[in-house]
């Protein structure tokens, strides 16, 4: 076991060294503009879409099942969060806001399988363009470029607010929560999933863990991470949160996504090769961060938080 651990960290160090050649610090969070720029780039080069399909988020792997297709696990995640959060209790035609909608994968599922009228917002113009291209005309989905910290909607405009893996990009978590809950009607549903750290104030990170967190923040334009309990408390104390906030850690259900996200390149090599040599370099660049994410989530340094509450 010790040898395997040593080999793992040596591999990570080698890959990190290679990544330095491609300016590993180029994705530091500076402002919301850097988030938009990063997602514009990831969308326009088509690498993530070719490898992972319509969903950039992690997948859901039931504990009793094995060998689940990576892309199917991503779809399964959406259905599991819908069921867990209670969104499936809403009638068809309900108005849903998808905050951080990406290229619209979750929005399309919410519209197609549940009959919802979905508005997806993202800070990336390239994502909005691609989401519109991928969405059939008959689905009740529309997509807009918008900052999640400054939602251009009236109070109580939506029956539910949905957000998956967007909050880690927000430099003001309280404002993020406030804007979502403000636009949620009284009695409406909030369904949210995000990357969190453990409680770093109660359990300070070691020197090595600090290095890992620094890498995870700087590589994928994250300003900061907070714990599941910290964000749950932000939701609880918000003036627009009338219902009980429930949160859980879904690490055990989502962790297989990290290895699968690398293995997809082996399963679908033409997805990378068809985009040219630069795509191969870009793929290799991501591997160190994915391996570190996998380690951090397995060790509990990072946690996959899911949240639900009523407005």
Structural descriptors:
seven-stranded mixed sheet, alpha/beta, 311 residues
What's a concise summary of this model?
The chain has 311 residues and is an alpha/beta fold. The chain has 13 helices and 7 strands. It is globular.
Furnish the topology, listing elements before pairings.
Layout: H1 2-20, H2 32-44, H3 47-52, H4 70-85, E1 95-99, H5 105-114, E2 117-122, H6 125-134, E3 141-145, E4 158-164, H7 173-182, E5 184-197, H8 207-219, H9 228-236, E6 246-249, H10 251-254, H11 256-267, H12 269-273, H13 277-299, E7 302-310
Parallel strand pairs: 1-2, 1-4, 2-3, 4-5
Antiparallel strand pairs: 5-7, 6-7
Spell out the helices and strands N to C.
HHHHEHEHEEHEHHEHHHHE
Overall pLDDT metric = 91
Number of distinct beta strands? 7
CATH C-level:
Alpha Beta
And the CATH topology?
A: Rossmann fold
Q: Structural class, please?
A: alpha/beta
Structural description of this entry:
This protein has 311 residues and is an alpha/beta fold. It has a single domain, classed as Vaccinia Virus protein VP39 (Rossmann fold, 3-Layer(aba) Sandwich). It has 13 helices and seven strands. It has helices at residues 2-20, 32-44, 47-52, 70-85, 105-114, 125-134, 173-182, 207-219, 228-236, 251-254, 256-267, 269-273, 277-299, and strands at residues 95-99, 117-122, 141-145, 158-164, 184-197, 246-249, 302-310. The protein has a seven-stranded mixed sheet with strand order 3-2-1-4-5-7-6, sandwiched between helices. Strand 2 (117-122), helix 6 and strand 3 form a beta-alpha-beta unit. Helix 1 packs across helix 13 (277-299), helix 2 (32-44) packs across helix 6 and helix 8 packs across helix 13 (277-299). The longest helix is centred in the last third of the chain and has 23 residues, at 277-299. It is globular. The N and C termini lie far apart (48 Å).
């Amino acid at each position: 076991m010790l040898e395997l651990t040593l080999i793992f960290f040596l591999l990570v160090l080698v890959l990190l060294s290679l990544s330095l050649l491609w300016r590993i610090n180029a994705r530091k969070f500076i402002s919301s503009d850097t988030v938009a720029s990063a997602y514009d780039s990831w969308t326009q080069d088509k690498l993530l879409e070719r490898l992972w399909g319509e969903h950039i988020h992690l997948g859901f792997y039931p504990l009793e099942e094995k060998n689940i297709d990576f892309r199917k696990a991503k779809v399964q995640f959406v259905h599991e969060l819908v069921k867990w959060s209670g969104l499936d209790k809403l009638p068809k035609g309900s108005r849903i806001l998808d905050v951080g909608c990406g290229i619209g994968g979750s929005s399309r599922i919410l519209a197609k399988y549940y009959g919802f009228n979905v508005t997806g917002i993202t800070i990336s113009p390239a994502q909005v363009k691609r989401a519109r291209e991928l969405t059939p005309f008959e689905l009740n989905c529309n997509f807009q470029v918008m900052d999640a910290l400054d939602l251009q909607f009236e109070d109580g405009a939506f029956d539910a607010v949905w957000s998956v893996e967007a909050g880690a990009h927000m430099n003001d978590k309280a404002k993020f929560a406030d804007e979502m809950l403000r636009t949620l009607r009284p009695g409406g549903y909030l369904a949210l999933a995000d990357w969190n750290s453990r409680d770093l104030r109660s359990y300070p990170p070691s020197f090595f863990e600090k290095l890992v967190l620094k890498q995870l923040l700087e590589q994928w334009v994250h300003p900061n991470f907070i714990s599941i309990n910290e964000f749950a408390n932000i939701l609880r104390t918000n003036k627009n949160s009338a219902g009980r906030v429930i949160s859980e850690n879904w690490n055990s259900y989502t962790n297989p996504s990290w290895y699968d996200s690398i293995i997809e390149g082996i399963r679908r090599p033409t997805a990378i090769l068809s985009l040219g040599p630069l795509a191969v370099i870009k793929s290799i660049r991501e591997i160190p961060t994915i391996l570190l994410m996998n380690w951090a989530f397995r060790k509990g340094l990072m946690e996959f938080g899911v949240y639900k509450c009523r407005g």
